Structure formats: structure tokens, C-alpha cells
Amino acid sequence: MKIKLALALTFICSSVFAESNFLSSVERTKIRDYEVIWLEDQKFPSFIASIYFNDGALRDEVEGLTQVAFDQLSSGTSKENEKQIAEFFDFYGASINHSITHEYSVFTIRGLTKDIDPVVGKVCELFNDAQYPQFELNSYIARKKSNLRNLVTSHSSLADRVYRKISLQGTPFATEVDGTLNSLDKIQGKDLKTRLNEISKAKKKIFLAGPKDVKKVVEVISKKCNWSQETEITPMEVAKPSEQSVIYLVPVPGANQAQIRVGRYLNRQEAIGKDDQFEFLAGFLGGGFTSKLIQELRVKRGLTYSAGAYISMQRDYGRAGVVTFSKNESTAEVVGLIRSILAEMELPQRINENEFKHQQGHQIGGHAFNFEKVNSLLNRIISYEHQKKSLSSMLDFPEKVKKMTPTILSRSSKEVFPWRKMTIVVVGDESLKDSLARIRPVKIIDYKDFL
Amino acid sequence: MKFLLLMSALAFVSCSSWKPEKKDNLADINLDVKEVTLDNGLTALIIPDHKLPIFSLYLFYKVGGKNEVPGITGASHFLEHMMFKGAKKFGKNSIDFIIEGSGGSTNAYTTTDQTVYYENLPTSQLEQMLEIEADRMENLLLDENDFEKERAVVLEERRMRYENSPRGQLYLGLMSHLFEGTPYGRSVIGDIADLKTMTREQIYQYFKKFYAPNNVVVVIAGDVNPRKAKEYIKKYFGHIKSSPTVEEAHEALKDEDFIPKFKQDKVVKLKGESPSPIFMMGYPTYKAGHKKGYALDVLSSIIGSGKSSSLVNDYILTKKPVATSIYAAHQSLEKSGFFFLGGELVQGINLDHFKKDLKNKLKSYCSTEITERNIQKVKNNFQTDLYASLDNNAGIARFLGNRQLLFGDWKFYQEELAEYEKVTVEDVKQACEELVKTPSVFISVWNKHK
After folding, report:
1. Region B34-255: CATH code
2. Which residues of B touch A87 (CB under 8 A)?
3. Chain A residues within an 8 Å CB radius of B447
4. Of B377, B285, B391, B275, residue with least CA distance to A147
5. Residue A232 counted as domain residue
6. Chain A residue with minimum CA distance to B56
7. What does pTM read for this prediction?
8. Are residues A191 and A301 in the same domain?
9. Residue from A422, A400, A401 nearest A241 by CA
């Protein structure tokens, strides 16, 4: 069955899009046993093939198992060692990489279309015959642990990690996809083989971008990859987050600036039918230089260099947050301002009409950019498919934004960012304790407990 | 505004055509570029592509860290921030609102050699955007209150990128020691003391000298009508006077003033909050466009780019890994260049032993790693990188604008690609052997350093 998704934009709301002829074809088809979505791109004789596995880190018996199974996929087969495999892909100018989430995994191959046969064939060899030799595994784990111990060199990354863990406490999603210092030591080659075998049996979809030749990818996979499609992760219920009573302060040595994270997780029920509202809200609060946070924190007060907000959903849960930083002296002021901004957003009458209309223009006018970069568009399509959202809804967004009102925006903000449920994490100097305590009691935690 | 780009102008090769013709040869690429030159010296390039109703506009000003003098280090970058604060016709703090309100996005970056402003916008906004760019080129407000607020933002940016980042510390340290006594040795973001004391008047004079039509390249890529675009460019930029002093300012910067003078290897140890040592090792090389630079580009790719590279094989994919990351690259700047290696060591590795071993390995690579196969591998990778880099309007604009600004001719990419095609084993070996005889700077950041 071949369904031509009429992404030819006849139903795109904005007249800007109606004039265009972008994305002239996205095809959904079934080739052999695989559901295939092909994004036609004739620009260059190159391709992207992303294989989606409906299986992710949620099934890890040891934290990091799926991630390591993919990271070390090319560490050796019964015929070739890690260096030979690396040499093979590099010689063709091809690349392989992967992205693991709790809910699903994506393995991506990039290269020239003329090389599809050997490159994709080699990928199948890896999935069929990965040996996970101990020598390479030990080396990898040693490097990975050293990287984790050195995470303190990036205050921003450290803040993201600590915030993620704390804000998702009590849910299955709190586990670390890429493992911890303790869990990595427990991972053995045989566990990885078992896990890869499970992944090979997961339900799959193949997402392609490139000229017509790219469909050869599916033929090669069908012939050479010993995959079946038996299992998939079933949706799970996640309770709503509870109220928060403290600010978590993570001291790091020598910091004269603090990283600030404020937010919470959402369960699926909270987001049903509201994806567009949430996307609009995130843009209003923290998308671009005219967003509320940037205007209040940077333009009006010079308190930070950057500030942003996000609300991103997977299938069963999502995360919403505010990300910024400031010098030690103004850290507490910034946290207080974030609280004030969020409180103000809860009142529809406090939403400035000009700001609101400006944001509508921003998000409607900017919609076409979502379709410019093939790689980004393919990833967006994968995310939609995973969440079982119709691809045509990707095109509906401008029309939905037109119908947005300050009341809807305000209500969304109240739902997503209620202050009492906000997890607050500050990574910075320990002396911030006193100033932060004026906002909420402060709990000092050691970053090493999160590695 | 906005973001400071650490690395400078010509970051290796990347190029492409958006025409769907299959090309097997790197140099065999045709670009459809419309060129405009105004009497006041402004050059514009227009590259139409009607796939989507959007375009990217880039303005490359030939001014960066190298044009500053002690006392006003960071002026180019500070000015970049102030360029978003408004100009006469459109008023205070309006630029971001106009651009984002129509669905566009904007940003800028400053390097040692250039300051670049860019916008990605819906097609309908072309005329207004060119009018805005002309307005701020001619009549920037530089409001005193905004100036002080932005000073705080720049200092915040400095804290984020350098004072709280061992990697930022490392990069600043490498540049200051490698190019000690030359303009490239100063920090592009500026010294703290200068940032705290720089005046509005100093920035204004700097602006008047360098922001003029005879010191900029305008590039428009995307869904635009070239005839209309040319009309708008003439309409809004045509009357702006060229700078009478900018040529003189550029001519005063002699190539020889950018050549590092040190004759002995330097070892620099910086105390920083890194539990395991991070390092960079740099060698001075050649300015952009120098023939030997192409061989060094290939050398850096062979030894330090990709999982099969020599450094990864020797220091990461080993029984007892020495590094968690390691790489090599060659950076061509307008007046000079540098070859560098860098990475992060595994905890417990002896830094001094590593340094010695690295230098020995680099010497041995000149005879062991430079093979026909490895050179072909690099060329294959250039081709795929090339396609990936020009996937969008912005990539095309960057590619052409950089060359126009650096070489005065966007078509210079053809020569560059032909040079890469011609690179031989002997060329790379010779470049490698010369490199390892050159004095180097080895710099590390570690919390165990005193």
C-alpha cells in the first residue's frame, strides 16, 4: 500500500505556504515487512536512513544498557575488529549514529547513494554479529566513566543532568539513559548481546531521505539484516508530579556564575490535544530574542546572556522547563523574576496584546523553516510517528496558532508551570544558599551523587 | 547580540551546489550566483532557490578581534551586541521585534577577522530587512543606557564561555600564547578590564571606521527575485558613504605582524576546575589560501578526524585508553593560521608523559599514516561533508560570503577544491615534516595544576 501524504500543502493555512511547493512528496509505503516513510530530496546524491526501533532505555535492567549496546555495536564482529569497522565507514565517507530515549531508539546511516549496498550491508553485519569484545568494552567504560567524572567542567551539562534526575524522581523515566558510574561497571558483553537481540525483534519503521535510489536501503535491510518485528514497548501511565518544597543547590568549585533550571515533568493526560498550545507557550516564554524571558531578564535588566523555555513531549511523558544562568550576585533575583513572570502569565489580563500578536506572527511566519533542513525534518517526522500524531497535523500548526487567545495561553501556562510544582535546581557556588533561601528552603546536594 | 564564535573565519572546506546534478569530482561544482557591486564599494551576492518561501541574508563585515588595540579589546564583539539595539529609522530595540514578528530569526557572531550578521526570514520580508541593515550600517543609535545594560550582558557571556568553562579557558590560553605579541593573541570577547572601561565614544569611532559599504559583503540565498533584490540593495545601500579610513586601517595590518615570533616550544599549565587534564597543542601555520594549507587540512583529517583517525586509534581505541576524546584540526585565518590537536585525558594519565608521547607520535605519523588510501578517504569525507553543509540557504550564504570577504572573490572556492583534488602523498608528508619541526605551544587545564 502506498499512501501519498499530501504534504503538497494544499491544506496549509498560511498563504505563504500555499504559494510554495516544498516537500513535494512524502511517501508512506510498505516495502517487504517494513513500514517506510520516504522524504524525497533530489538535491544531492546522498542519503539519510533512520531505523526506528520501538524499544528504548525503559527496558534496561541496568541503567545504560541500551545506550551501550548501540555505542559498542561497531566494537567488533566475529570477522572484523573495531578499527577495521571504523575504517570501513570512514573510507566511504559514511557515518552511523544513534539516538536512544526511554521510549524508543533510532539508528541513522548517512552516506552517498552509490554506496548504499556496502554501507547498509555492513550495518546489517553489525546487528547480526556484534560480539561486544571485553577488551573494547573495558576501554569504552573507562572512557565513559572518566567523562562522567569530568562533567563538572560543564556547569550547564551538569545542571541538566541533576535537574533531569530530580524532576523525574518517582517515575520510570528518572533512570539515566547513558548509565551511571555504578551501573556502567555492571554491564557485560553477554548482557549487551542479549539486549541487542531484543532490539532486533522490536517493531521498526524505516525513515528515508534522499533521491529515489534511497529505497534500496530497504531491500538491503530485508536481505541482510536478521530482524523480526515481534515486540514493542507498550504505553505506560505516569502519575502527575507532586509539589516541591525546596531549591536544590549543587555546589561546584570556583563558579562565579550559576546555572538555573526550573520546571517539571508532565504526564500524557496533561498534554492530550494540547501539543500546539504548549509549543506556542514555550515560544512565548522562551523562544527567540523577543520572548518574555529574554526581554525581562536580559534586555530590561542585563541579568543574563541567554534564557529559554521548552515543553517537549514524548509518547507517555514530557518535560517543561526554563533554562538560564546569571552571576552569583543576581542568581536569587533571577529565580525570583522567573517566579514573577510565571505568576503573571497565569493572569490573562496581564498578557500584553501586542506581545501576544507578535508571538503569533513569529510562530506562523517561522513555520516554513521547519521544512528547510532535511535532517531536522526527518527527525521531526520520526517524533510525530512515535507519538502517533498525524503528519498532516505538522502543517496545521499555523492555523491553530491563529486561533490561539491570551486566555488559552494563560491557561496553558497555569497548567504547565504552577510554581508550587516547579523543581528548582541551581548549580553554582555554595554561598548562594542564603540568598536562595529567601525564595524556598535550600537543600544542598553533592553533584557526585548524580554521576 | 549575540553569540561569539570562538573559531575564526575559514573553518576548513565545505561547499556545494544545490543543483541536483551528480558530481563525482570535488572541483566540478557550478553555482548560480548573481553579483552586484555598487559605486560606494558594496558587494552583494544573490543566489536564488525557490524551494521554500524563505531566504537567508548575511552581512559579512571585515572587522574582528584583529582590528582592536589594547584598551579596546572586545570592541568588535561589544559593537555586535549594540547593533541589535536600534538605529535611526526603525528606532530603539525594534530590530528583533520586526524580524521575529514576521517569523524570522536573527543572530550574529564575531571572530578574529570578521563580524557576521544574519537573518532567516519569509520571502516577503526582503525589502524591509535590507532597509534595516542599511539603517544600522549608517545610523546606529548606540544609546547610552542600552550600552551600559549590554556591558553587563557581555560580561555575563564572558563568564559563561570562559571564566566558568575550562575549555574556554584553554582556548583563550592557546591563542594568547600561540599568537603572543600579535593581534591574534588578544581575546575576541575582550579583557575584563577593557570591557568594564570601554566607552560609548570609543565604540562609536570604531563603528564609523569599519561599518561602511566598502567593508561589507552582503549575501542573499533563497526565494528571492534577483532583479528585485538588486533594486533594493541599490535603493537602501546606494547612498551610504564609504569609509575613507577603512582601507588604510586594513593596509596597516601587515601579514608579518601576525607571524608568531617564539622560537622554542612553550608549555603552559593553567589551574582550572577540570578533574582530568584537558589540553591543546598548537603550531603556527599559514594564512587562508596558502597552498601548504590544503595539505595541512588533509593531514589534520587523516590524523585527527573520525573514528579511524590515527589519534583515535592510538589514544582511545586501546586496551588502556589514554584519552576520552582527541582530535586535530587546521584553522586558516585571514593573516595567519594554526594547526592544533586537543582532547581530554583519562584520569590518572601522566600529563608530561602524554605530551612527550604525543609529539613523538606526531613525528612518526609523517611516515606511517600518509598513504594514498588515507588521502582518498579524506577526499571522500570532504564530499559528504560538502553536501551536508549546503543543505540550506544559510549554509550557501556562509560558504560564498566567507570566500568573498577573505579572497575578494566568491569563485575562489573552485581553486580551493581543485587544490584539494591535487593534494598528493608527498605534499602531505612534506607539510607534516615541516610542521613537527615548528615550535609549538602545549597548554593544559587541570585542577591539580598550581
Report:
1. 3.30.830.10
2. 308
3. 253
4. B275
5. no
6. A369
7. 0.90
8. no
9. A422
